[in-house]
Amino acid sequence: MNDERVTFYKWNIEETLPTFVFERKAGQQLILFFDFDLFEPTEFAWNYMKNHLQVGDFLYFDEAFDEDERKILNEYVLVDPALRLKYVGSSVQCLLLAIVAN
């Protein structure tokens, strides 16, 4: 994908994510795409990124109804008192949520 707005990272999330320099331009939305498949890396990414979220951002879970990503949703995301989320859409496996207040 040749789009300067999109950056893909691969390798171990616990090593890669802390090296990421998080800079957001005014009015820029974040789409946080969870595609880790396992509980521990998804949990790490959520705990690391949750403080960077703003109103208007999106959370996308590619396997939201599988055991590990669903556990993150149930135990962290959907019960976070600091976030108000809006259902945007879903498929058999995927779920897209928008942050409407934090």
Fold topology:
Blueprint: H1 13-16, E1 31-34, H2 39-49, E2 58-61, H3 67-77, E3 84-90, E4 95-101
Parallel strand pairs: 1-2
Antiparallel strand pairs: 2-4, 3-4
Short descriptors:
102 residues; alpha+beta; four-stranded mixed beta sheet; 4 strands; 22% strand
Please characterize this protein's 3D structure.
InterPro entries: SAM-dependent_MTases_sf. By secondary structure, this protein is an alpha+beta fold. The protein has one domain (30-101). Helix content is 25%, strand content 22%. The protein has three helices and four strands; from the N terminus they run H-E-H-E-H-E-E. It has helices at 13-16, 39-49, 67-77, and strands at 31-34, 58-61, 84-90, 95-101. It has a four-stranded mixed sheet, covered by helices on one side. Helix 2 (39-49) links the parallel strand 1 and strand 2 (58-61). Helix 2 packs parallel to helix 3 (67-77). The chain is globular. The mean pLDDT is 90.
Proportion of strand residues: 15-25%
Total number of beta strands:
4
Basic shape: globular
Please give the share of residues in helix: 25-40%
- State the major sheet: 4 strands, mixed
Uncertain stretches: none
Order of helices and strands: HEHEHEE
Distance between the termini: 31 Å
Quick description:
This protein is of the alpha+beta class and 102 residues long. The chain has helices at 13-16, 39-49, 67-77; strands at residues 31-34, 58-61, 84-90, 95-101. It starts with 12 loop residues before the first helix and ends with a strand.
